[in-house]
């Protein structure tokens, strides 16, 4: 590893540490006073819940009041029943005054009990200085103003202390008739709920107080709740964090001293039980956490994350470890390639550390732990895909040298052994297969045979013309019609292998629609002079890209794999063997017992098996034959389903080698076979994610007070991966494939259109053992328009579901009444906006599938995409060496 690699790693490590330091630079704020006027007091411990009547004991309440003694002058309670009715008596032990609260809701009988107890407690305990009858009962709609006024009048007649009810400031302005029934205004001022940034929150609060003073001159004002949450959703500019909570409260206390406010801070202790009824933010309003530990510094400068040095060191250490592994095992990279890897690795490692830290500090239930674990596992999967995509991007674009050049000139005089060409066929149009055989007959090669195996074609009018044509072409061409024959394509290839001439040294396989170049064998077969070599592979290529826009889009999508991914894989002797335009050493094929009939991607499985037996492969990204692409979107999906399902079959069958340190495979081979199929595996998980996303979104729509959107960072990572893959595709298609902008966009749409079918194939592959072999028909007539919709019916259904979820969330969070303020709820809330963006991004592949299906049905002209960058082949015995890239 060069010194420049160490320099790049060191620079990005310093930048990462510096970013942590910048974000966590100390902020000086007014110090906390020795004693505050009052705090809202809900003495519930972890696991307790007033809604289900799991209440704190007298000892627990006493312990909490003892903790507050000397730090606060008064506490505000919320209920008078059961153990909560003991608060005034217990508070008196510590010389604490009490603003006594009675909880009112729709249960009128319980309301009467609360009021009666409040009257009795107020008259019995001299440390009760005022009463609050009802808490946001008008805001919630639990009581009418008339019903509440009756209770207020009842209490005012029975006690000597001032009486009020607690409501947000805007409710008092909206209901002046309520003011006539109170002795003072108990006002809730919580700028967070209104989306006010913390830097403007104090001024906003003061302006609200001035409005109330002007509206009701002479009426005393008491701020019954004022605070800021330490965690939870972000609402417009209001960010819930511990540092913002500390900043807001310390600034408020200073301003309250100057303004002469009477106030109760919201609140003494965190209340995890509120999560079930108010969403996640409800648990985090306490000055002390649920363990009764202070959550922030009262005097020292405020730091966003006090433990930031430790987290920065962990993120740098993880990044350095991952980056070092990538640098050591990557192809020779220039500074730009190393820098790209550094940006991705340091970015995702820092994000991962921050998310895990942030999530670990939350109050977790069994459900939230389960959901969080699944989200973190998904996050790790996204990170793994990001890193593998970045490595392929860096190596494909900035890999400086090629370690395995294809150079036949070094082998001396070409040796041209006998070749057996195997052509499996099932129900293929005879005229197409005859064109394939005619091209083989024109091969410029001295010694070869052709074995055509038609397996299970039922109609003699389909296979007999091919049989007659083989007889006309001469003794080199052998035709077999076999029915029944098990094992699909692999069965046909094994049948051909058993009938291969004894003196054959190389087996070639092509699909029934391929027209090969005359110099194909003469150019590539001499490579087998290297005894270690078992496979020589050239790309799948196609000759019908100009027929219509659908095929042009498919062609653009195919080229990325064959001219980017396979080129990089070849450098580690880890290509995916594909079952056309492949050459295999006959003895090697026999030694591993032929093609696997249990696998529907027998070609890729054979390649991996040969690697496990110590053989090598070579890939030359030059066209020597062209076939036909699927005619319809349905056929296109069937082909990709087969590839993805077969990949899962292979991973399951070879897991003991791929997922261990088994020396039958090199590290590079294991990496490419796992990393190459990882995006497909993630597509399978993406199907599960979509089910979760729609379910969670429905819960957010129908129960917005209880279900918050997932953490913003869980939304950011999928969006980042989507953007990163598009940037990678655009760059590499331009620089390595030679595609124009339209072709690059077409490739992206075609690839996205297959996401759903790949996800279904992966899930089925994980749950089932065998799936029928889906043949890709050629030379069919395109579907009618109605069939175009039908071909993407599953994707269209998902598109509608995801879009409706996004629209439903937008409507819910822009039209529905707010939780506290009587104005439209902020979608303003960036976490909701981001989650809506995730839903819409998730809908894009399904929209792409519908678009591809319609393009297929309508047979739009291919010229819209421009001329495809077709390969032209190369002369015999050429060297292939990639040029070093300028850095």
From TrEMBL:
It comes from Steroidobacter flavus. It is an enzyme of class 2 (transferase). This is Glycosyltransferase. It is a multi-pass membrane protein. The keyword Acetylation does not apply. The lineage of its organism: Bacteria, Pseudomonadati, Pseudomonadota, Gammaproteobacteria, Steroidobacterales. GO terms for molecular function: glycosyltransferase activity. Keywords: Glycosyltransferase, Membrane, Transferase, Transmembrane, Transmembrane helix. Its main location: membrane. The keyword Membrane applies. CDD domains: CESA_NdvC_like. It is found in: Membrane. The chain crosses the membrane at residues 308-328, 340-357, 363-387, 673-699, 711-733, 745-767, 797-822, 834-860. Its EC number is 2.4.-.-.
